[in-house]
Amino acid sequence: MTISQTLVRLSAAVLLACGWLATMEISQGQEWALKRLEDSPRHLEYVEIPAGSRKVNSFIAFPEVSKKAPVVIVIHEIFGLSDWVRGVTDQLAERGVIAIAPDLLSGSGPDGKGTASLGGGDGVRKAISALPPDQITADLKGVIEYAKALPAANGKVVVIGFCWGGGQTFRLATNVEGIEAFCPFYGTGPTDGKDLARIKGPVYGFYGENDARVNATIAGSTASMKEAGKVYEPVLYKGAGHGFMRAGEAPDASDANKQARMDAWKRLDGILAPLK
Length: 276
Known about the structure:
- By secondary structure, the chain is of the alpha/beta class.
- It has a single domain (30-275), classed as 3-Layer(aba) Sandwich (Rossmann fold), CATH 3.40.50.1820.
- The protein has eleven helices and eight strands.
- The chain has helices at 3-17, 31-39, 83-94, 121-129, 133-149, 164-172, 193-196, 212-215, 218-227, 244-247, 255-272, and strands at residues 43-51, 54-62, 69-75, 98-102, 153-162, 181-185, 203-210, 232-241.
- Strands 1-2-4-3-5-6-7-8 form an eight-stranded mixed beta sheet, sandwiched between helices.
- Helix 2 runs parallel beside helix 3 (83-94).
- The protein is globular.
- Mean pLDDT is 90; it is low at 1-28.
């Protein structure tokens, strides 16, 4: 093993200890998530979704149902369109909904490629931090338009997101209409009252108890949303940390993260049930 290979593995171990990325290589990491996808009986595919002058590479999972289904748009973490995020789309399809996970880093990599071309780790984080907010909004609006027009869809759309995607989910709520629910997972909310006044759908927040950085914003979001007359229902999951939906699924998951993940899925199931 070369010195550089050793350093990469040590860096990955440090990130794991912090509850962050399971590997420095998106394409080779999260083997447990990739195996789930490979074993899925459902129809999974990639599509390029038009968003203005851009094309957003997206991963779609279809449920095995006899009638039209709602669509859940999944906004990825700061790690981009990872195996785990694609696995979430499959788990949603298993629950009877169509799920679409757009790669918002489409076009950010070499030769106009996306997440998989950025090498993982800092490369992905730097690319995400450079994304223009207006581009993110336009990309997601394009995905929503595509979702509503799918022949197998019933026209109802829910948006969920994790970590960075949780914050983007809450921000998107201030920029779009016609969405049944917004479900930010451990993401911070907008602070401008004028932005919050534009929200047209309920926001259901999911947070780990041991996540002081994000949780410090909940009280402010609660007060601001109440003042704006909007629905905001945050739930804290006992003993869970930041990223508990991913961490709770990993082979080395703590009991608290496992339980939080199960409880969060139950809550999400309840939100989706009336839309089917």
